[in-house]
Amino acid sequence: MGSNGALTFDVEKNPNAVPATEREALLQNPGFGKVFTDHMVTIRYSENTGWHGWKIEPRRPLALDPATLVFHYALEIFEGMKAYRLPDGGATLFRPDANARRFRNSAERLGMAQMPEDLFVESCRALVRFDRDWIPSSEGASLYLRPFMIGSEVALGMKPSSEFIFCAIASPVASYFKGGASALTLWASENFTRAAPGGTGAAKCGGNYAASLAAQAEGLREGCDQVVFLDAVERRWVEELGGMNIFFVFDDGSLQTPPLTGTILPGITRDSLITLGRDMGLTVREEPYGMDQWQKDAESGRLREAFACGTAAVVAPIGKVKGRQHSFTIGDGNAGLIAGRLKAALTDIQFGRAPDQHSWLDRLF
Ligand code: PLP
Ligand code: COI
Question: What PANTHER family does the entry give (predicted)?
Answer without folding.
Answer: BRANCHED-CHAIN-AMINO-ACID AMINOTRANSFERASE, SUBGROUP IIII AMINOTRANSFERASE
